[in-house]
Design a protein that fits this description.
This protein is of the alpha/beta class. 39% of the residues lie in helices and 15% in strands. The longest helix has 31 residues. The radius of gyration is 25 Å and the shape is globular.
Length: 279
């Protein structure tokens, strides 16, 4: 029997089919990197390409673990801060670059005491603002307190080490009249672009983190300050779904961990402060 040979038209159809299959396989294999893309069928229903329920479950469990560890850290150090009586003046000695600490909302400087102690042990005089108390003031007022402190203390070439809201106040102070007194800032888990969750919160001091809040929008215009800021954040922050990446920053450091509070204890924070102090 004579063996049939495929015509040019058939070859073309086979080639197109193989290309389609390879493209589908490529989409399927990389789907988990892009959140499982979906296509709409001719009947109007959506079909998920390459969804991996097992990978999604592992990711969810890992984030839940980070969340639990994060709040355990926060509760522990808030309780420690409530009973600690160490004098802030004991940290102001040292011959290295001076550092000013700016805590987040509902935090006193004592919440950041582990970091303060480590920085002071490295020879840095570390200054805190008792007047901030729990940092519930509007960002503009917190920034003004920072400006007043820099001018009163006559600090020059200082580093700011800030957490969360403290980074917003620090950036605003850097854009103000005393900004020349600041060499740079290390901001940890700071919502530079705001957080969409803030709109749903009943407390005014937390709604101030909305992306449409005037202070957040005002800070976005001070792009020239960004080149003096190192932003450090985890790959998952339960408080800031948008993340803390800062456009035009001196450096954005994304840690292979998650959380909003516990990242303060990451060794990379000390390493970045050390790098800035040697500049």
């Amino acid at each position: 029997m004579q063996r049939l040979r495929p015509t040019g038209h058939v070859k073309r159809l086979v080639h197109e089919r193989e290309s389609h299959v390879r493209s589908s396989d490529d989409l399927s294999s990389s789907a988990h990197h892009r959140g499982a893309p979906r296509l709409r069928s001719s009947r109007g229903s959506t079909v998920s390409l390459g969804s991996d329920p097992e990978a999604d479950a592992i990711r969810a469990l890992r984030r839940a673990g980070w969340w639990i560890a994060d709040y355990a850290y926060a509760v522990y150090w808030q309780l420690r801060a409530a009973v600690d009586r160490r004098d802030a003046g004991s940290f102001t000695t040292g011959s290295e670059v001076p550092i000013v600490i700016l805590p987040g909302v509902y935090e006193t400087w004592r919440f950041m005491q582990p970091l303060i102690t480590a920085l002071h042990a490295r020879g840095h005089p570390v200054h805190v603002l008792d007047s901030l108390r729990h940092n519930r003031r509007p960002i503009v007022e917190s920034a003004q307190l920072m400006t007043d402190f820099l001018e009163t203390a006559q600090l020059t070439d200082a580093l700011i080490v800030a957490h969360s809201k403290g980074g917003l106040a620090g950036k605003m102070a850097m854009a103000g009249s005393a900004g020349f007194r600041v060499r740079a800032m290390v901001a940890v888990a700071t919502p530079f672009g705001g957080s969409r969750y803030a709109r749903m919160l009943p407390v005014r001091s937390l709604r101030a983190f909305s992306p449409t809040d005037p202070s957040i929008m005002q800070l976005a215009h001070h792009r020239d300050v960004n080149e003096r800021i190192v932003s450090i954040y985890g790959e998952f922050d339960p408080h800031i779904p948008e993340g803390s990446e800062l456009s035009g920053a001196m450096k954005n450091v994304r840690l292979d961990t998650g959380g909003h509070f516990r990242v303060l204890a990451n060794p990379r924070v000390l390493a970045e402060v050390a790098a800035l102090s040697e500049r």
